[in-house]
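In the design runs reported in the main text, the only information available to the sequence generator was the tokenized backbone. The following block is the verbatim input for one such run; it is reproduced so that readers can re-run the procedure and compare outputs position by position.
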């Protein structure tokens, strides 16, 4: 109830002040940004440790729903009002972006976007305008990650496959981990590379 209320209140900014042009990606500017705002409100209320549960739900819903896509999956910034993308993937993408560039910097970008586009008539903004601003206000080292999040369909699969611990004579430990680290991208039909 708390989360949904926060999401709907967030539409006072995302949709009621800034509204996307009626093209691909439009709902990222309303629904994904309302999701992100609600996530931050929820994190302040319940604490960061609770967020993993919610984000896992979002990720699972996204993965489950993309399996039943009937036409073609789009990257977030080009989604065609696909709910599993603009809600579920949107949450995970914006949370990951926050982790990468920091809440303060992301908030500054969002505030500037509202100042640029809030309460304006046509022409309305597209996700291209949002991404241009995001690229302009973030360090180049973040740009490949931002591109993967918003403009491509990319998955990361990182896990520990085995571990070994050996106690040294001085009482310290040597820990050896074997990691599986995989990044793959897919096209709209799910073909993976
Ligand atoms: Zn909404």
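Verbatim output:
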């Amino acid at each position: 109830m708390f989360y949904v209320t926060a999401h709907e209140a967030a539409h006072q900014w995302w949709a009621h002040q800034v509204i996307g042009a009626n093209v691909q990606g439009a709902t990222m500017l309303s629904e994904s940004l309302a999701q992100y705002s609600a996530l931050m409100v929820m994190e302040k209320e319940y604490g960061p440790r609770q967020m993993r549960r919610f984000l896992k739900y979002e990720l699972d819903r996204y993965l489950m729903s993309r399996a039943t896509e009937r036409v073609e999956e789009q990257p977030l910034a080009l989604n065609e009002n696909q709910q599993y993308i603009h809600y579920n993937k949107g949450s995970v993408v914006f949370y990951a972006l926050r982790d990468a560039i920091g809440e303060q910097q992301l908030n500054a970008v969002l505030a500037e976007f509202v100042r640029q586009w809030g309460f304006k008539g046509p022409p309305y903004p597209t996700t291209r305008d949002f991404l241009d601003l995001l690229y302009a206000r973030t360090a180049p080292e973040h740009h490949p990650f931002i591109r993967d999040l918003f403009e491509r369909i990319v998955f990361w699969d990182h896990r520990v496959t085995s571990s070994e611990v050996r106690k040294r004579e001085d009482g310290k430990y040597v820990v050896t981990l074997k990691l599986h680290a995989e990044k793959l991208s897919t096209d709209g039909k799910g073909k993976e590379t």
